[in-house]
Amino acid sequence: MRPCLLLALALLGTVPVACSALASPAVEDEEDVTELEVPEEYSRCLGASDKQTPGVPSMPSTATFRYVVIRHCRTFRHAQRVCARRFRGRLASIHDSRTNNFLRLLACRHTNAGQVWIGAVSQPAVPFPSCHWTDRSPWNYSQWVPGHPLPGHRFCTALCTNNGLWRSVRCKRRLPFICEI
What we know:
globular; 9 strands
């Protein structure tokens, strides 16, 4: 399908979505992937040579991160492997509200799941859990649901697609995920 048509469908929210927690696992090279180019201005049509991955500006630098939404549900660890092996990337880390909102909207449009994995992990610590990004970038932003991160165990983090808040989730749970490439 032409990139301009894909972009138009994505922005209208009409791209078909499918993900079930009970879905059967797919072979890694058959992942159900949403890859769309979303320019910073959201205004130009894509050329045929453009990569088809959503992008938003990075933190203070002029580089742009690109994101891929994987609709097949995986454990946190398996999601990390898919991002690394298939896309040479990692689970998304979020450092500002603009990126958080962009990824929430992207996940909401391309999955029917209420949560998606992002690359944050919390470890038990006193008096509050300590949090870090799996890509080792600075922990300079968070958007936790009140009462989270949960204490007592190691938890992985899911972005809620309905409100953009983050939840502590058992890492073995199977969720769709967002890779940053």
